[in-house]
Amino acid sequence: LTVRASSYADELAKTAKTVASPGRGILAMDESNATCGKRLASIGLENTEANRQAYRTLLVSAPDLGKYISGAILFEETLYQSTTEGEKIVDILTKQNIVPGIKVDKGLVPLAGSNDESWCQGLDGLASRSAAYYQQGARFAKWRTVVSIPNGPSALAVKEAAWGLARYAAISQDNGLVPIVEPEILLDGDHGIERTFEVAQKVWAEVFFYLAENNVFFEGILLKPSMVTPGAECKDRATPQQVADYTLKLLRRRIPPAVPGIMFLSGGQSEVEATLNLNAMNQAPNPWHVSFSYARALQNTCLKTWGGLPENVKAAQDALLLRAKANSLAQLGKYTG
Ligand code: 13P
C-alpha cells in the first residue's frame, strides 16, 4: 500500500492539530432539521428557519467560546446562514478562533438484508459537495453511522459502516476537509460493558482496515467514538474509572498514535457524566488528544435555559460556557466538579 499524497496533506494535518489543541474540543451543533425540530419542540418552539437561526446564533456568539471550543460542526443550512444582524455564522466562528465543520452524511436508512439495522447514505455527489463546503469556509467534516448491539451487530452492518466511513474519509481529504470518523455504537440495550467492549473492538478493527485500504492519511483524520459503557438499560452501572479503563484499553488496542485527536460523542449521557468520564480518561498522558465532540452534553441546559426568549440569551450562553469550561478542564484531566 502506498499512502496517497493528497495535495492537502500539510493543511489537513494542521487543521486536525488545531481542532485537537490542549484544553479544547468540539461543539456539535449539526442537528439535522428533523432533529433540531425535536429539540425546539422540547421548549415549545416551532421548527422554523428563524428559530433555528436564533438558537444557533446564540451558541456561536457566546463570549470567548473559543477558549474551550476549537471546532463547531454545522448542518448545511447553518454553514450558509447569517445572523439576524447579517453577519455570517462562519465569520463569527472564525473570529472566535473556532474551526467551522460540516455534517456531510445524508442520514440513516434501513440496511436491506440485515437484522433491522441501518446504513448511512451520502457518498453520491460527496466530492462536489465537499469542494463547495471548503469554498464556504468549512475545514473539517463529519459522517455519523451507527451500529446497534441489540440488533446484532451483523457482520454485514459492521462492514457497511466501516466501508462507508473509509470512502467518505478519502473523499473528504481529497477536498481539503479533515474527516471525523464516527461509527457510533448506540447505547440502547441491556448488555454489560464487556459486550460493548467486544463490539467496539470489532468495529474499530474493520474501520481501520478499510481506512488503510482506501489510503486515508491518518495524520489528517479525527475520530469520534462512543465511550465504552454498559447498555442504557443494563442494571450494572459503571463508574467513570471503569468507563475510562475500558475505553482506553480499546483505544490502545485499535487506534494508531498517528491519529491526532479522539473526540468522544456524548450519546445520551448526562452533562455531568460526560464530563466525569472524559476527565477520568485524562488522568494520565495519552498518545492522542482525548477530548469531546458533544451535542446534548453541551447544549441540554443551555437550550432549556433559553426557552426561546430573547431575555434569556445571556443566561443560556452562560450555561453553555459552564459546560464548555468543565469539559475543557476534563480534557486536561483537571475537572474537580
Ligand atoms: P451527542 O453528543 O448528543 O451524542 O451528539 C454528538 C453527535 O454529533 C452525534 O453525531
UniProtKB/TrEMBL annotation:
Its EC number is 4.1.2.13. One of its GO terms (biological process) is glycolytic process. Keywords: Chloroplast, Glycolysis, Lyase, Plastid, Schiff base. CDD domains: FBP_aldolase_I_a. InterPro entries: Aldolase_I_AS (IPR029768), Aldolase_TIM (IPR013785), FBA_I (IPR000741). Pathway: Carbohydrate degradation; glycolysis; D-glyceraldehyde 3-phosphate and glycerone phosphate from D-glucose: step 4/4. The keyword Nucleus does not apply. GO terms for cellular component: chloroplast. One of its GO terms (molecular function) is fructose-bisphosphate aldolase activity. It is found in: Plastid, Chloroplast. Its main location: plastid. It catalyses: beta-D-fructose 1,6-bisphosphate = D-glyceraldehyde 3-phosphate + dihydroxyacetone phosphate. Belongs to the class I fructose-bisphosphate aldolase family. This is Fructose-bisphosphate aldolase. It comes from Spirodela intermedia (Intermediate duckweed). The lineage of its organism: Eukaryota, Viridiplantae, Streptophyta, Embryophyta, Tracheophyta.
